[in-house]
Amino acid sequence: MRWTGSTTEGWTRRTPFGWQANHSPDRLTRPLVRRDGELVETDWDTAVDAVAGPTKQLLEEHGPRSVGFCTTGQMFLGEYYTLGLIGHSGIGTNHMDGNTQSTPRTRVISP
User: Fold this and answer.
1) What residue spans define the domains of the chain?
2) Measured in whole angstroms, how far is the alpha carbon of residue 80 from the centre of its chain?
3) Rounded distance between C-alpha atoms, residue 71 and residue 80, angstroms
4) What's this model's pTM, rounded to 2 decimal places?
5) Other C-beta atoms within 10 Å of 82: how many?
6) Rounded CA gap, 38 and 41, in Å?
7) For the chain, how big is the Rg over CA atoms in Å?
């Protein structure tokens, strides 16, 4: 089955209700970290350290080629640009996968 809608149909169909997630009563408002197998609320500094600490250690021990990015084809150009700056200029890795072929639209369009 081939998708025959307009290019923007998927985008406009998704966005009118995207704001609802921002006001959902079960939306997370504080970061969570896993301690002893349980997710617990924490402050932002602790949450960022939980990610940045092991990443720094990995870079120190194995260099920039030990880090890679696998993203989604649903990002905007500015987001790809920013991630490219972080990956290439900041960390120094060339391991950047945009994963642009694995989106809902390409799965529908593909025969």
Assistant:
1) 24-62, 63-111
2) 10
3) 9
4) 0.57
5) 12
6) 10
7) 19
- Contact between 93 and 87 under an 8 Å Cβ cutoff? The reply is yes
Residues contacting 23, CB < 8 A, separation 6+ = none
Q: Do you know the residue count of the chain?
A: 111
Q: Round to whole Å and give the CA distance between 66 and 49.
A: 19
- The predicted-structure confidence for 68-89, as pLDDT tens digits, reads as follows 888 877 778 888 889 989 999 9
Q: In a 3-state reduction of DSSP, which class is residue 41?
A: strand
Q: What is the pLDDT of residue 79?
A: 86
Pairing of strands 38-41, 32-35: antiparallel
What residues of the chain score a pLDDT lower than 70? 1-19, 100-111
Backbone angles phi, psi at 2, to 5 degrees: -105, 145
Amino acid letter, 94: N
Q: How far is residue 33 CA from its own chain's centroid?
A: 18
Is 69 in contact with 97 (CB distance < 8 Å)?
Answer: yes
Rounded to whole angstroms, the Cα distance separating 82 from 105 reads 24
